[in-house]
Design brief:
Keywords: Carbohydrate metabolism, Cytoplasm, Isomerase, Magnesium, Metal-binding, Xylose metabolism. The chain is built from 16 helices and 12 strands. With about 425 residues, it is of the alpha/beta class.
Length: about 425
């Protein structure tokens, strides 16, 4: 017990509560054949919840936590105690971490690995005593100045090797803790200017790095999924993992499309100029949907603010795509979200997560209702019904040619007329569920 959250009791489902409680998230409620907890698979992000100090580009730390700056193992252990107290209060089934979040970096790779394994021992004991499971682990390959020009894509081969050692250690710890996934986020895998960059060489290095990770996964017997997380920019001007479609092309080029899936973040989708549901639908269509980082951006600021989700209609459309994909397999809903720098108190962190969990629960129930009623899907099927005709299917078959299709269209005197897509009617339909 850390003592930091001692004044806060574990949260319960109590729709009529005026205090800290879940008003919509009932872990045992059945939604489309599964308990709500098993559909949503909530996880807490260790970095934002326990590493974020409340700073911004114009000012430093505003939060005062007893484990800051966590630059010793004693403080790292104190932070772990507080984290698992917090997990117990929320009752979340999962958590996620970077190596940099949970232990101070040592003055050598060997010291850093030793410290990571010592913290992993503590995690394993806490997990065995009723703590949450590990949704995914990952390595921080972007904070240290050695990564200022990337990790896998760095022009210095020694940085590539250092990053490989770091990922090896983090993947093995994730495996030891029975993690369900391993995530790679290329925080600086991109470029600031083409004047000093060879993008073809850097892409080849990134493809080789990912292949090495996949090979090591199989070597050690890790059964979880390897996930990439797309992001278009910030901190680099342009990142190679721009969005779902870009990453799919990258995976296809290096023969990894059957080995790697995606961890898709709402805020990153917005930065790429997409909606969250677009990125989820694309991943589903391409067969690479894995997991989600749930948050939101401030639409006025234009950068990645990582705020807690609070927009039920947006979340409903996201879970609609997730449920259409069959729901989560090894993935889940990780709150990659942080408090605002003026939210100083322990109760703020609890309330932020509780509210976000309720928003997701409401969105899930709306999504399930829309799928079960089948009105949206019926409209979609009707729009594409013409493609069920044998002659339409024949155009897509191997025996057709551009010439044969053109000749038939001319012989039939085709003059197709537009048909309404009924967009406003469908938007109104969605609003009836929300």
């Amino acid at each position: 017990m850390s003592g930091y959250f001692d004044s806060i009791s574990p949260l319960t489902f109590d729709p009529d509560s005026e205090g800290l409680a879940f008003r919509h998230y009932d872990p045992d409620q059945m939604v489309m054949g599964k308990r709500m907890e098993d559909q949503l698979r909530f996880a807490v992000a260790y970095w934002h919840s326990f590493g974020w100090e409340g700073g911004d580009p114009f000012g430093g730390r505003t939060f005062e936590r007893p484990w800051f700056p966590a630059d010793t193992m004693e403080l790292a252990i104190m932070r772990a105690d507080a984290a698992f107290d917090f997990f117990r209060i929320l009752g979340v089934p999962f958590f996620c971490f970077h190596d940099h979040d949970v232990r101070p970096e040592g003055d050598s790779l060997a010291v850093s690995r030793d410290r990571l394994n010592r913290i992993a021992d503590i995690f394993a004991e806490k997990m065995a005593n009723g703590g949450p499971r590990l949704l995914w682990g990952t390595a921080n390959l972007f904070t240290n100045r050695r990564y200022m020009a990337g990790a896998a894509t760095n022009p210095d081969p020694d940085v590539f090797a250092y990053a490989a050692a770091t990922v090896r250690d983090c993947l093995e710890v994730t495996h030891r803790l029975d993690g369900e996934n391993y995530v790679l986020w290329g925080g600086r895998e991109g470029y600031e200017t083409l004047l000093n960059t060879d993008p073809g060489q850097e892409l080849d290095h990134m493809g080789r790095f990912l292949s090495l990770v996949v090979e090591h996964k199989h070597k050690i017997g890790f059964k979880g999924a390897i996930l990439l997380e797309p992001k278009p920019q910030e901190p680099t001007k342009h990142q190679y993992d721009y969005d779902v479609a870009t990453v799919y092309g990258f995976l296809k080029r290096y023969g990894l499309e059957n080995e790697v899936k995606l961890n898709i973040e709402q805020g990153h989708a917005i930065l790429a100029g997409h909606s969250f549901e677009h990125e989820l639908a694309m991943a589903n269509a391409l067969g690479i949907f894995g997991s989600v980082d749930m948050n939101r951006n401030d639409y006025q600021s234009g950068w990645d603010t990582d705020q807690f989700p609070n927009n039920v209609p947006e979340i409903a459309l996201a879970y609609y795509e997730i449920l259409k994909a069959g729901g989560f397999a090894s993935g889940g809903t990780n709150f990659d979200a942080r408090l605002r720098r003026q939210s100083l108190d322990p109760v703020d962190l609890v309330a932020a997560h509780a509210g976000a969990m309720d928003v997701c629960a409401r969105g899930l129930k709306v999504a399930a209702a829309m799928l079960e009623d089948d009105k949206l899907e019926a409209a979609r099927r009707a729009r594409y019904a013409g493609w069920q005709r044998p002659e339409a299917q024949a155009m897509l078959g191997a025996g057709s040619s551009l010439e044969s299709i053109a000749d038939k269209a001319m012989a039939q005197g085709l003059d197709p007329q537009p048909v309404s897509g009924r967009q406003e009617i469908l938007e109104n339909l969605v609003n009836r569920y929300v």
